[in-house]
Automatic annotation (TrEMBL):
It comes from Pseudomonas arsenicoxydans. Keywords: Hydrolase. It comes from the Bacteria. Residues 206-350 form the SGNH hydrolase-type esterase domain. This is SGNH/GDSL hydrolase family protein. One of its GO terms (molecular function) is hydrolase activity, acting on ester bonds.
Amino acid sequence: MVYIDHVPPVSMPVIEARSSSERLSGLGKGKSGEVLNISVIGDSYSAGQDFYLNDLTQRLAKVFGFAGPGYVGFNHGTALGGTNFKYTRSNKQYFGGDWDVSSLGQASPDSRTVTGQAGAYIEVDAKQTAVINTSIGQAKLLYLGNGKTSEMRYRWASSDTWQSLTMAGSGVQEVQLIVPTRDDWALRLEVVKGAPTLFGLWMANDRGGVRVSKLAASGAASADFYKNDSQWQTQWKAVVSKIPADVYLIMLGGNDQGFGVKPKDYLENMKGLVRMVREVHPAASVNVILREDTTRSSAYPMSDYAQVLEPWARSQNIPYWNLQCAFGSDFKRYASNGPTPMIGPDKIHPIPGSGGRLIADYFYRLLVGEPPCGAASK
């Protein structure tokens, strides 16, 4: 297409980025304490962890070990939400009181922030399993300072003594939490004074293995993760820099299709997002992925987005992946009423036990260096 001609290169220092398979190979050889930090940027496919992300994380952890939950965003929680680290804004057990939830498109890891008044609370509950050790060795709260002082308190169990947090400063800030001594815990954070604006938590244990941070937002399009605004970009990079990342999996485009975003505009947003990621974590391996098409009506098929994203990714030596090859070319075959249903009745989201499992397997193979169908274009 004519509008991808003469794509200018992303100006970055030359840094050798180790592939995820190289890093996982080290974990598989039992290198003590080594961690692979994976950040997943996406829309509801990834934000709704039950579609594929929980399955993928569990499988990686079983083989390579689990290094902690990573980013626990107060928009959609963790990659293991619903099983090992429970949090949701739709349940008052976990999110209650006077909170102002921002619109999408904020300079935040998962595209939203939450601002609370006195008495507002958040709870994250941990439940250990044979594969997932929920012990915490490090924990920090990420927030946006407004130049005023706010106070919060927290405890890891209802029987614990409250610990105080003083939140001050301007711009992106972090404050360390005293970690729990138990593996199964229920962290409760409450606003005491002021009106703090929060991004989320970052947590790790003291073990080696994989750590998957979910930087995804339901309903988000590419324009929600990139703004042509220097102040916005500065804030986004400042907070994302506090979330360690060795590998990025960026899968956006489904909502661009749903909103009728022109492929050339989608490409500009993706170029800007990748540039910011490279500026924050220049040694990280960055992968861009397009999801499969479905039977829903749209102005642009996913193949139109592929026709602009793939050539640009190749020009930048960025691995490009397309889920269409895994699902096959016949949209009706894997529709909810087709002979092998993998997409739900909404004609958008995968059925977890079929389409979701296929996506989890695709990403697993991508990460461990067993090329799924359609080896990455570089």
